[in-house]
Every structure is written in C-alpha cells, then in structure tokens.
Write a structure and sequence with these properties.
- The chain has about 240 residues and is of the alpha/beta class.
- About 25% of the residues lie in helices and about 30% in strands.
- It has a single domain, classed as Vaccinia Virus protein VP39 (Rossmann fold), CATH 3.40.50.
- A nine-stranded mixed beta sheet has the order 1-2-13-12-3-6-10-9-11. It has a two-stranded antiparallel sheet with strand order 4-5.
- α4 packs across α5.
Length: about 240
C-alpha cells in the first residue's frame, strides 16, 4: 500500500516482498538497508534484557532473506549496488554468518565493511562481539564506488555513532542506524538517482537521500514506523 509520497520519495507500508512488486525491474541505483536480525533476545552479559518480534526458525529466516535479496537483485540496475547491514550471530554456541545465505543469491560480494559500534554483549565465555558488517553487493564485478570520503573498510563509533540508546525519545527505533551511514554511502555514488531501503524503519535512508537530492523508495510493515518516517521527512 502506498502510504506517502512527495516530490522525491515513495513510502510503502506492508509486507516487504509484496510491496517490492511495485518496483520495476532494474529501476534502482542504490539499496541501503538493515533487516531484522532474527535475534529474539537482546543480551547484556548473560541477562536477556529485551525480546524482539523477529524470532523465526533460522532456516525459515534465511530463506526469507534470500527471497528479499533476490527481489533486490531484480530491481537493481546492472550498474547498481546494495549495502546490506547485518551481523554475525551466535546460536547454541555456533556463529551464524550472513555469508551462509548471501552466497545462495545471484549477488557478487564487492567488499565487506566492518562497523565497530560497541556491542553491549560482555558475556566472558567468548571474545566480546563489538562489531557488525555491511556487505557491498553488486551485479557486476566492474561496479565501482568513488571514495570521496577517503575512508578505509573499518568504521568505528566516531564515524557512525549509534543513535538507538535513548528509548525515551520519540524517534526511537530498535535497529536505527546513524544518519551519517547512508550519507557516506550515497556520497560515494554521485551518479545514483534512486535509493531504496526495503526496511526503512524510522526513515534514516530517506532523510539522507533527501539531503543529497536523491529520489528514494522506502518500505516498512509497521504503520507506526511509516508514520514516524513521514513526520521526520516533513520536519527535517
């Protein structure tokens, strides 16, 4: 369902796979997104401090992510790029890496970017997880970016400062990433025209696209987050 539009953007509210059917083949230049991680619980030390709604059986979750990545591949231009933010997760003492399902899609992997964002899990049974990953995916090995921000492949909390630490703020979202993250990525693709975020959450990618005079498309399945995105777009 088309929830909102302005002169630069389109926001759809509904199931991501259904709503992506509204997007034509090879019509998007750049995709920046961070899907639900299927964590179920958020840990600090050994204590479960929160329960997320994304608690699918792992096999089903990975199949879902493959479907979404395949849809992203369909809508992406041949020259386009996707930046897919995810993390290595631990389940039953075993690490699950996003490569397990990315390799099952048509995408090639251009680069793995490390985001050191001070993860809160300090359980002493392993070296403390302190980072997430952003996978630069593309259709062609010839795809390039222009490193106008002059950065290496490791970003820390000073580059991309986490902003989801104050749950009292109206702009809070469980998985919000910092505005500078999509701004930096979009800046490295100056010829891009249309930016897609199929898990737009509170609208960070849309705000970045508008600031850089790009067109954008966003999707979220929760009306409350769509409402928040619209409010932020109209008050930026």
């Amino acid at each position: 369902m088309l929830y909102y539009k302005n002169d630069k953007g389109l926001l759809y509210c509904g199931d991501v796979l259904e709503e992506m059917k509204n997007i034509p083949d090879e019509s998007v230049d750049l995709i920046i997104t961070s899907p639900p991680y299927n964590l179920k619980y958020h840990h600090i030390n050994k204590k479960k401090i929160g329960c997320y709604k994304d608690s699918m059986p792992e096999k089903k979750y990975q199949e879902w992510q493959i479907q979404i990545l395949e849809e992203c591949y369909r809508v992406l231009k041949v020259t386009g790029s996707m930046f897919y933010n995810h993390k290595n997760r631990i389940s039953k003492g075993i690490q699950i890496t996003p490569y397990e399902w990315i390799f099952k899609t048509p995408f090639i992997i251009k680069q793995e970017i490390v985001w050191i964002n001070k993860g809160p899990n300090f359980d002493p049974i392993r070296f403390y997880p302190y980072s997430e990953r952003i996978y630069w995916l593309a259709k062609s090995s010839k795809t390039k970016l222009l490193n106008v921000i002059n950065k290496h492949d490791v970003f820390d909390w000073n580059d991309w400062r986490p902003v989801n630490t104050d749950r009292t703020k109206e702009s809070y979202h469980d998985r919000m990433f910092p505005l500078q993250l999509p701004i930096d990525i979009i800046s490295c693709f100056p010829d891009s025209e249309v930016v897609l975020d199929p898990f737009i959450g509170s609208g960070t990618t849309a705000i970045a696209a508008e600031q850089l005079s790009k067109k954008w498309i966003g999707i979220d399945n929760q009306e409350s987050f769509c409402e928040l995105t619209v409010k932020k777009i109209n008050t930026k």
